[in-house]
Amino acid sequence: MRDGRAETVALACATLLPFVATMLYVESVFYEVGAVYNDAGLFAQVIYRNDLWLSMRAAFAEAPLPYFHTHLTFFMWPLALLSRVLPVGMVQFISLFHAALIAIVAGVGYRATFLAFGSRLAAVPAAWLLAFSGLCVHTSWNPHFEIVIPALMVATVMALFQKQEKLGLALLFALFLTREDAPFQFVLLWGSLTFLCPQRSPEERASAIRILRLAIALGIILFAFQSAFFPPRPVFEMEYSGRPPWAHLTSDVIAERLGYLWGHRVDVWGPLLLVLIGGLVLREPVLIAATVAATPWFLLHLSASFEGMARFAIHYGFPFVATLLAPSLAMIRDLPERDHGRALRLGALQVAVLVVASVRADARPPIYALSPPLGHYGHRTDGEVVRQTERLLDHLQAQARAGSLVCASDSVASLRTDLVAHRERIRAVTEARADCDYIVSFRRDHEAVAVAATRALSESETRCLVSDTYLVVDRPGDVAWPFRCAP
Predict the structure, then answer these.
(1) Closest Cα partner for 135 from 105, 172, 174, 158?
(2) Is 459 helix (H, G, I), strand (E, B) or coil?
(3) 151 φ/ψ angles, rounded to the nearest 5 degrees
(4) Which of 8-22, 96-110, 175-189, 299-313 has the lowest mean pLDDT?
(5) What does the alpha-carbon distance between residue 318 and residue 138 come to, in Å, rounded to a whole number?
(6) Which terminus of the chain, N or C, has less C-beta within 10 A?
(7) Is 201 helix (H, G, I), strand (E, B) or coil?
(8) In this predicted structure, what is the pLDDT of residue 374?
(9) What would the 3-class secondary structure string for 97-159 be?
(10) Is the pLDDT of residue 15 over 80?
């Protein structure tokens, strides 16, 4: 009874801090910093009070397009239903949703490190390090659901390592509901573990192969279902291969990308390198298998046509979260036996991996300013800023529907996705011309280049602000109080 109470308290400590901090951070990103891409708002719109088809009402087509053409994500149905009964707005809902995902990641991190090393006192801060690692912070900057995929993968592997096959199958089915390629992501990890780690018995190997075949079958079923009923958009071509395939790659491009990662994304390559070195030095096949499973993802992202993906920005680095817990998985595989010396070595490696995963550079490259604004963690957004921002955007939305040309940046479009719905009337700020009736953006470094390039305004023209720091409207026309306007 006492152990159960201690476990509940420890798990609550491990998950509550990441949940609250992430919830406040996501809300601050939307209302004060400005979302890095309008993609964040499009995803929020998909899961917030949407229809049965999870239509993307303002994204890639003039007519509503079911999100299933992009990703087959069945778990969003109950989310869309839940959003209809919760008395919160779209930004608040996506903040709660993403905070819950990060709490799940923290919970899996706590459970893995506690099972591996037997110390709740050490497992709680380990969970915090995982939840606030560079990979998780980047995905919180552009809230998406993918961060839960590696958490479910690790949870599934833990269950299977402990011979809890029914729980493992249930978690594998949950993984099946997240994204059409999630089973194949699991196949990479579980297949590497199966073929690179020695099996204790023929029965154990047969069981591992059976799980692998099931995961492959689930992945094939998902892709076949999507192809038959929701022909996928060419996401792979748009973001990874390009057209013609990989024609964008040159030695200079690869060198520039590797140089950027070396200087700015230690949180991506550092843990992978530590796990690989640890596997070779300590002769731990689980660590080597985890690195092998991560390598195809690393190479695919590095060669992607989309620059943000090549820099592992926003949520694109999510597959590597599973690798961060590889030292714990190595210990869990051999439970209930726990060699003290081995536990010390793997425990030290686990701490080192999580610490390095939390290293983030603050430098902001000139065009792609892809460093999250860390100062907004734990900061609560002023309710008056939220109300005034919503009123201003309501006004701009009405003006756009009445025929005005509103040039909204991606950050603003995340708050009002239909400001980019009618492409013949609305342009992104990077395409704005002097005939815009309104130019609206956030004061953020990552938009400064775009705003400066489109600023065909004299210093004497009126500028209207929600606050000195946040939302700015140029050439505001008839916009008036409650928004502070200054000459």
Answers:
(1) 105
(2) coil
(3) -65, -45
(4) 299-313
(5) 9
(6) N
(7) coil
(8) 66
(9) HHHHHHHHHHHHHHHHHHHHHCCHHHHHHHHHHHHCCHHHHHHHHCCCCCCHHHHHHHHHHHH
(10) yes
The continuous run of DSSP H or E covering 286 comes out as helix 285-302
What's the residue count for the chain? Answer: 487
Tell me the CB-side half-sphere exposure of residue 300, using CA atoms within 13 A: 13
Put the strands of the sheet holding 438-442 in their side by side order: 427-428, 406-408, 438-442, 471-474, 463-465, 484-486
Query: DSSP secondary-structure letter at 381?
Result: P
Render 5-66 in DSSP notation, one character per residue.
HHHHHHHHHHHHHHHHHHHHHHHHIIIII--SSTHHHHHHHHHSS--TT-EETTSSSSS-EE
Query: If residue 184 lies in a helix (H) or strand (E), which one and from where to where?
Result: helix 182-196
Three-class HEC string of 202-231: HHHHHHHHHHHHHHHHHHHHHHHHHHHHCC
CA distances, 386 to each of 86, 92, 221, 390 (Å): 18, 11, 44, 6
Is residue 485 scored above 80 in pLDDT?
A: no
Compute the C-alpha angle 470/46/223, nearest 5°.
Answer: 135
Could you tell me if 113 and 126 are in contact, meaning their C-beta atoms sit under 8 angstroms apart? yes
Residue type, 141: W
How far, in Å, CA of 152 to CA of 328, rounded? 15
**Confidence label for 406 from pLDDT (cuts 50, 70 and 90):** confident
**So what's the pLDDT on residue 425?**
38
pLDDT of res. 435: 62
Q: What whole-number distance in Å separates Cα of residue 110 and Cα of residue 108?
A: 5
d(CA 399, CA 414): 18
What's the confidence (pLDDT) of residue 233?
Answer: 75
The model's pTM is 0.89
- Burial of 60 from C-beta contacts in 10 A (0-12 / 13-18 / 19+): exposed
Of 480, 451, 450, 56, which is closest to residue 235 (Cα–Cα)?
56
CA angle 197–201–203, rounded 5-degree value: 110
Amino acid at 339: D
**In terms of Cα–Cα distance, which of 463, 411, 405 is closest to 433?**
405
Q: Where are the alpha helices (DSSP H) in 311-434?
A: 326-333, 340-357, 383-401, 410-415
Quick check: bond before 231 cis, omega within 30? no
Look at residue 360 and give its three-state secondary structure: coil
Helix (H) / strand (E) element for 408: namely: strand 406-408
Tell me the pLDDT of the chain averaged across its residues. 83
Q: Are 43 and 50 in contact (CB under 8 A)?
A: no
Q: Collect all residues with Cβ–Cβ distance below 8 Å to 197 and sequence separation of at least 6.
A: 285, 286, 289, 333
Output the six-digit token pair for 127. Answer: 């969970």
DSSP bridge pairs for 441 = 472
| Two structure tokens written together for 14 | 């491990």
> What is the pLDDT at residue 450?
41
Torsions phi, psi of 407, nearest 5? Answer: -100, 100
